[in-house]
């Protein structure tokens, strides 16, 4: 089992992802903050929408990862990317880490789109509620970040993570299991404004990719 060492430097993929997310946030804020119509149009075009929505575009499962609702949303996602991503990129290599990050993020989008369809099936078609739901965007790097959390727990299960609330240490494997269970409960019983199943989707696709890599690598070096 690999041992975890905290990385003092930021490797290239993590660094460029941090820059891309921050630049996207600042650009949208500075360019369109005083023009509400154009500001909303950015989210209509680049955030994730249901497949049946008039706002849906094929690139949204990728571009939604680089948009954030506010500074706290951006900060916590980028902090988690920096915290967990550095060690993972060093261990995986930049190419594999790049692939992993985007598989988790796009996979999370696909799961969220599936949940869109489930939710829409319980709403009367063409009703006001239905049309409003079709226009609600999903955005943020959380799905990819939850995939990183899953990988960290699999690669360094006994590494200690210091929680913020409550401020207690916890082994990574238990942190991932507990956090995943909480996300599942919140997703099932509802927690407005948060795409919990997208988070779980990022973890699920990350687990699939990690298991596939493990089997492939085991066969390669057998």
Structural notes for this entry:
The chain has one domain: Rhomboid-like fold (Up-down Bundle). The chain has nine helices and two strands. It has a two-stranded antiparallel ribbon with strand order 1-2. Strand 1 and strand 2 form a beta hairpin. Helix 1 packs antiparallel against helix 4. The longest helix has 27 residues. The protein is globular and about 50 Å long.
Strand order in space, largest sheet = 1-2
Q: What structural class do helix, strand and pairing data support?
A: mainly alpha
Q: Let me know the average pLDDT.
A: 88
H-E string: HHHHHHHEEHH
CATH superfamily: Rhomboid-like
Please summarize the sheet with the most strands. 2 strands, antiparallel
Sheet-strand content, in percent, reads: under 5%
CATH architecture: Up-down Bundle
Summed up, the domain count is 1
As a percent range, the share of helical residues equals 55-70%
Mind telling me the C-alpha Rg?
18 Å
Q: What name does CATH use for the topology? A: Rhomboid-like fold
Whole-Å distance between the termini? 17 Å
Please state the overall shape, judged from the principal axes of the Cα atoms: globular
Number of helices: 9
| Parts with pLDDT < 50 across at least 5 consecutive residues | none
Give me the count of strands.
2
**CATH class categorisation:** Mainly Alpha
